Amino acid sequence: MNAMTAPCFHPDQFMLSDYAAGSLQGAVALPLAVHLEYCQQCRRETQQLEEVAACLFENLDPVPVGEDTLEQVLRRIDSIVADDVAPAQGAVPAPLHAGIPRALRSLVPAGLDALDWKRIGSLRSSRLRFGDSEREVALQHISAGGKVLGHGHRGVEITVVINGSFSDQDGCYRSGDFLMRGPDDVHRPVAAQDGDCLCLAVLDAPIRLEGWVGRFLNPFMKIRPL
Amino acid sequence: MSAKASVLPFVPRSGLQSAARHPSSPAMNQAVTFDRDTDPWTIRLQAVALERDRKAYAELFRHFAPLLKSFALSTSGMSSNALAEELVQEVMLKIWNRASTFDSAKASATTWIYTLARNCRIDLLRRKFRVHEEVDVDELWDFGTDPEELHDELYQKRIEVDIRESLRALPSEQRQIIAKVYMEGKSHSEAAEELNLPLGTVKSRIRLAMSKLKVMLER
Ligand SMILES: [Zn+2]
Questions:
Q1: Count of other CB atoms within 10 angstroms of residue B34
Q2: Stretch(es) of chain B classified as CATH 1.10.10.10
Q3: Could you report the per-residue pLDDT of B122-163, keeping only the tens digit for each?
Q4: Tens digits of per-residue pLDDT, B89-129?
Q5: What are the strands, taking DSSP E only, across chain A?
Q6: Cα torsion through A157, A161, A167, A171, rounded to 10
Q7: CB atoms inside a 10 Å sphere around CB A144
Q8: What is the pTM of this model?
Q9: Is the torsion defined by CA of B158, B164, B170, B176 positive or negative?
Q10: Which among A63, A70, A131 has CB closest to B133?
């Protein structure tokens, strides 16, 4: 991606190895794939983890395949008219998709403006139809200088910054930064003064709002996977 | 250069094949230096890509199809023979169809084929459990490589050799747990549950193994 500086916040090694092994659950792979587009260090590490996996793969006990499997495959090869070519890499994105990470484009087919945005204070949020029944996947947009209500989490919230930056008491997060928040973390994100901030968030449980607002609203908060 | 299958270096079916299950087998401890440029499977895959060489393809099939079947059968939730055969066929077809996108500067044939198998397994599991996820598996699990990263090809190759050698030298306890996570497609918490070990123990064993595998970069 066109990140000016390398991300500072990365997924931990266990997430990367689950990713390399293909065992990450549902939508969790999405923010990881987005982070990898920005982060050369994690791409390298993932590549090495894939080599570890390949080495284990090579050492499996072979199991005989059906006697006619090769024949069947050759017959299928003869009947194909090049319908399964690999996805084009580095293809120029449609203008609609400029600035949107590759892994997200199929979820935003008509661009960001065509999404259905819901506003809560200075946060605009739009759920994406990923198809993970246990997790909500959403784009979140905080306008420049905007403050988000202080909140904690009942489950895990993964956030990747796509554009702009925001900060909370623990640090400042820029393009490509990958954050995972657990049930004990409470934070009040604030977007940078000089620009809007766009993030991808994946939640497996509703957030918990702080203070009076929370006392009234928390019982009604639900994640709504699409 | 004509890469005729008949002049390809002959390599016996991987002598290391049973090592995963019998960690103390001497084959695993044998020092085998690996080099992509002389790796017979990489050479055969290139012959398939460049010359649509069917003999080389059949040789790839004989080597990889039984490994693919084993990979499929070891997956939790996928132990049916029919599904395993489906994975074998799907991956073997992709090897033929996508051979031209294989780049030996980025990966060895085995690593490339492993990633095809992994993605195909995710696809089959999605279908089996009727999960309709909107993002194509190949889009989620294919982060590509920037051209400038290829400058590090030599470095990458060194690491590849290191990984293989360190994996061979790993204590069986650590190798088994890594194999469980990787080959059976289990998350760390699932693996912990199955081995009846606390998650922390599983994680620390994996961390130990990984640091030995030198995949811990400067973090
Ligand atoms: Zn990273």
A1: 16
A2: 170-219
A3: 999 888 887 788 888 888 887 665 555 555 666 667 777 777
A4: 999 999 999 999 998 888 899 999 999 999 999 999 888 88
A5: 118-120, 123-127, 136-142, 151-153, 157-163, 166-168, 171-173, 178-181, 190-191, 197-203, 207-209
A6: 80
A7: 13
A8: 0.82
A9: positive
A10: A131
Query: Please, which residues have CB within 8 angstroms of residue B186's CB and are 6 or more apart in sequence?
Result: A23, B76, B180, B194
Neighbour tally for B3: CB within 10 Å: 17
Look at the block and give the residue holding tokens 């909107």: B134
Measured between beta carbons, the chain B residues lying within 8 angstroms of A29 are: 140-141
Q: Do A52 and B213 touch (CB under 8 A)?
A: yes
A61 reaches B (C-beta below 8 A): yes
Nearest partner of B94 among B50, B57, B55, judged by Cα = B57
Structure tokens at A142: 């905080």
CATH 3.40.1740.10 fits B14-150, yes or no: no
* Residue B214 CB partners (closer than 8 Å, separation 6+): B159, B162, B163, B166
Distance separating alpha carbons of residues A106 and A143, to the nearest angstrom: 25
Q: Looking at the complex, does the CB of residue A51 fall below 8 Å from at least one CB of chain B?
A: yes
Structural domains of chain A, ranges and CATH numbers in brackets: 8-226 (2.60.120.10)
Separation CA B72–CA B123 (nearest Å): 12
- Indicate the residue of A24, A64, A77 with minimum beta-carbon distance to B93: A77
Residue A147, classed as helix, strand or coil, is strand
CA distance A33 to A15: 11
CATH, range B170-219 = 1.10.10.10
B143 Cα: distance to centroid of ligand 1 (angstroms)? 12
The residues near A131 (Cβ < 8 Å, ≥ 6 apart) are A226, B131, B132, B133, B134
